Amino acid sequence: MKYLPIILLALIGISCNTKEKATPQEKTWWKEAIVYQLYPRSFKDSDGDGVGDLKGVLSELDYIQRLGVTAVWFNPIFTSPNDDNGYDVSDYRGIMKEFGTMADFDSLLKGLHQRKIRVVMDLVVNHSSDEHEWFRQSRSSRTSPYRNYYHWWPAEKGKPPYRYSLFDVNHDAWMYDSATNAYYLHFFSRKQPDLNWENPKLRDEVYDIMKFWADKGIDGFRLDAFGFAAKDTLWPAFPKGYEKNFMPYYSMQKGLHDYLREMNSEVLSKYDVLSVAEGAGNSLQDAHDLVDADRHELNMAYPFDWIDVPKPEGYDLVKLKGIISNFDSAFRQKGWLAMFLANHDQARMVSRFASDAPEFRDLSSKMLNTFILTMRGTPFVYYGDELGMSNIRFDRIEDYRDMPTLNEYQRLKNTGGDLRQFIENLKFGCRDNGRTPMQWNDRTQAGFTSGTPWIKVHPNYTSVNVAAEAVDSTSCLNYFRTLTKLRKDYPTLVYGTYTLLDKNNPDVYAYLRELDGEKILVALNFTDHKADVKLGLTVAKAGRLAGNYAQPIDQKFDYMRMRPYEAVVWKLE
Ligand code: GLC
């Protein structure tokens, strides 16, 4: 035993048994990883065209290394006409022109590996681009060998049963194509036709693509929208209005687990890779089934259940804690979770989960980063959140770039919807808020590009930027570095159990992480006012590991009064 248990614990109101031994989780690099999600379009532009690129990333490898992260997940960098910023792939083995060349990618992979940073790539195979050669062939004739790579409905049978499209301007997922007098299916945009996973040839093509990248040496795959890959191709009619809650009809349909098992045996099992799907089905059971090691499918779940809790009018912290704690219990013995509060499909975490008001932005960004980096589950940190980047809140539709947002605006315009309210809602939720250029310094365009950026830079770049934060020992950036170091220094933060404390506290999220007698307490005030937390702990001695206020909190462990957005991490001895 590494540490002698020298504390007395009198736990009141604790939801689980903290005396429980550490979970019998086998140790792996991807459980210990700290993943940095990098949106290449917005990270760093090396050639002045206003679009981030691989050479840009290459020039910042030391920055990434100094963050203390151990893996980078790249959003798609493959050849694409960019209807959906690379989530419409026209060549899975090519690199998007704006981003550079395969030689650039090879240098990037090498440079990251030299720094002991792993590389995770997006795999977008629920759909391809309509400009992919497979689709060109498929649409050319009903007898094309590629016809069954996609889903077609012959028009002589009349209109196909309604399918909701998430991105289409009319929300109709069937698009008529006159070349063969048939409709093709697209759950996302018209330029993102869904691939037919029932076709073994298509599946083999995908496995070959995966092997191509795994053989290059990448370390993981993030399976985009893969929960939607299995479809009932008898195309039954769905109940009227199902689109209001379409997930049970779209996600985790029959066949999906078979595809994953096959993918595992054909590819994943042959490489030491992280495999994580976007979303985790419709229930805790679904999430668990995806990653239960005995089932040989994926190895990490990425559920959205807690991500949508924040609303513009605020949210219930008890509910958030409940959802996350339930997930933790379900994954206590087997299976593994990703832990995150933001990604490229969300607005900025500080603007949604805490406060980006000038007096709180820095404090509350630090508080949320504390959460991600001290929870059980592999942390996924979204680029810019280490600086405390926040929502840009464009007022004009002309500033938005996101295709589904522009389509929805058009639809509302066509149908006489409330455009003013729509724009208001975008300020809180639109994913463009999370895609503004990385803020490197206080020079033109925040040092992101020498040209005109593809999307505007947040005006707060003059103070919120890497250069300024690097030289400020109290900055969010340096606090973030302290936390990544902490996570590496204390395996308790990776493998230790998680116990929620004071579970019905509406303001404070507090929990204990424990491993082999070592105990780490984390307490986070999620509000802009002082808040009390009843921890019910009697502690002999404690050491402060991190905190976002310079002046340490009064250390009383039965009861604490926390300052606005305060975060504290203590080792209890
Ligand atoms: C996933 C991606 C999102 C994309 C969509 C369609 O949800 O994360 O960015 O628009 O799939 O590929």
What would you say this structure looks like, in words?
- By secondary structure, the protein is of the alpha/beta class.
- Helix 12 (361-374) packs parallel to helix 16.
- It has helices at residues 29-32, 54-58, 61-67, 102-114, 133-140, 200-216, 247-250, 256-266, 284-291, 317-330, 349-353, 361-374, 403-415, 419-429, 466-470, 476-489, 491-495; strands at 35-38, 71-74, 78-79, 91-95, 118-123, 152-154, 174-177, 182-185, 220-223, 274-277, 338-339, 378-382, 497-501, 508-515, 518-525, 531-534, 542-547, 559-562, 567-572.
- The longest helix is centred in the middle third of the chain and has 17 residues, at 200-216.
- It is 28% helix and 15% strand.
- The chain folds into three domains: 29-126 and 197-392 and 436-470, Glycosidases (TIM Barrel); 133-185, Oligo-1,6-glucosidase, Domain 2 (Oligo-1,6-glucosidase, domain 2, Alpha-Beta Complex), CATH 3.90.400.10; 497-572, Golgi alpha-mannosidase II (Immunoglobulin-like, Sandwich), CATH 2.60.40.
- It has a seven-stranded parallel beta sheet. A five-stranded antiparallel beta sheet has the order 13-14-15-19-17. It has a three-stranded antiparallel beta sheet with strand order 6-8-7, with no helix packed on it.
- It contains 17 helices and 19 strands.
- The radius of gyration is 24 Å and the shape is globular.
- The structure holds alpha-D-glucopyranose.
- Alpha-D-glucopyranose binds next to loops.
